[in-house]
Amino acid sequence: MSETVAGAVAERFGELYGSGPEGVWAAPGRVNLIGEHTDYNDGFVMPFALPHTAVAAVSRRKDGLLRLHSADVEGGVARIRLDEAVPESDRDWTAYPAGVAWALRAAGHDVTGADVHLESTVPAGAGLSSSAALEVVVALALNDLFGLGLSGSGLARLCRHAENAYVGAPVGIMDQTASACCRAGHALFLDTRDLSRQQIPFDLAAEGLRLLVVDTRVQHSHSGGEYGKRRAGCERAAALLGVDALRDVAHGELDVALDRLGGEEELRRLVRHVVTENHRVEQVAELLDSGGTRAIGPVLVEGHASLRDDFRISCAELDLVVDTALAAGALGARMTGGGFGGSAIVLVEVGDVAAVTRAVEEAFTAASFRAPRVCEAVPSAGAVRLR
Ligand code: GLA
Questions:
Q1: Which of 99, 151, 169, 281 sits a CA distance of 20 to 30 A from 160?
Q2: Is 191 tagged catalytic?
Q3: Which atom from ligand 1 is nearest to the alpha carbon of 37?
Q4: Which contiguous run of DSSP H or E holds residue 118?
Q5: DSSP-derived secondary structure for 204-264
Q6: What pLDDT, in 10s, does the model give residues 54-100?
Q7: Angle at which helices 174-181 and 130-145 cross, to 10°
Q8: How far is the CA of 17 from the centre of ligand 1 (A)?
Q9: If you measure from the C-alpha of residue 175 to the centroid of ligand 1, how many angstroms do you get, rounded to a whole number?
Q10: Does domain 3-199 sit in CATH 3.30.470.20?
């Protein structure tokens, strides 16, 4: 399967650039099982990789030129001179791969140019990390071709830096780490403070379960203001509480911390979400470890309520998915990703997939919302070289 995809992408590269690529790489999108808006608070997250990937065919150049083409965007080959690529100069999709090349060069790596052709099956704007997949696939290709020797974690850090500094989106490290480091059949428990990771077996099929991803098709963007406002609020709260990051507020100390924030109602809500969400990631890790996948359902539902009521980043479509799925028999459901649209995840017994899917689709029709896209999420592999 992946050999067929690699062959097709390599062939298109040849048509575009006149000869075949030196190699072909793939990096996946992700869904986050639990741990939302905790990554820029030094907290815990638990994403897993999707079977949907960004695939890149790449060859080196020596003349300082980066040529970029995507099958998913209209337009021809973009040409970027690496010595002219500066942060926030590019508002197009090309900012992601160009940002990666810029970040590698800024870190002292001798990247002298490349020809790149990309094809992605990760839906854009669905909260499934299509941009992280794009960054990671290009970073891995350049790492291999130029012999840079960076680890998965090193690549993730570099890609986050590219997105923060070059693209201008103040995101955390979760998505890039998921795309670079996930393992098939596992969820990734990541401590975003020291980047230590644990692969937690997560074989839904073996337990007769399924995890559905419902893309509401409400588009979101993280370079917009709301994500940054939440992040700034969390940083202000940490400063008022005298801690490095909200990660340092233990779950058992939450009430004391909230008291100390006095009348700062908005900050109190942000802190309550982050502290309880970190606790939920630990709870889910323990439940999965002890084979209690069904028991994570209520924890997912609590996570959604916290994002909706305290962090205030849900929307009518996401709430409708969650409420409808639970009423139709789902074990758990919550929005996933940055919020303000994008996707929700739904944990269901295999026998309930059809009924829950139908209920959600009918509820969207009744509410006159755009038809959602529903797919099954199978925990898949992180970034790899295909050929
Ligand atoms: C986006 C960001 C991540 C993370 C999530 C929210 O996906 O890219 O770094 O902050 O939102 O959990």
A1: 281
A2: no
A3: 12
A4: strand 114-120
A5: TGGGTEEEEEEE------SSSHHHHHHHHHHHHHHHHHT-SSGGGS-GGGHHHHHHHTTT-
A6: 999 999 999 999 999 999 999 999 999 999 999 988 889 999 999 99
A7: 50
A8: 35
A9: 7
A10: no
Which residue, judged by its Cα, is nearest atom 1 of ligand 1? 338
- Helices 152-161, 95-106: axis angle to 10 degrees equals 110
Q: In 3D, which of 95, 115, 104, 105 has the Cα closest to residue 140?
A: 104
DSSP notation for 5-52: HHHHHHHHHHHHHSS--SEEEEEEEEEEEE--S-GGGT-EEEEEEEEE
The closest-lying atom of ligand 1 relative to the alpha carbon of residue 132 is 8
- Residue ranges for the chain with pLDDT beneath 70: 1, 221-224
Count of CB atoms within 10 A of residue 246's CB? 25
d(CA 67, CA 245): 40
Q: What is the pLDDT of residues 322-332, one digit of tens each?
A: 999 999 999 99
Q: 196 in helix, strand or coil?
A: coil
At 1 the pLDDT is 62
Element (H, E) at 177: helix 174-181
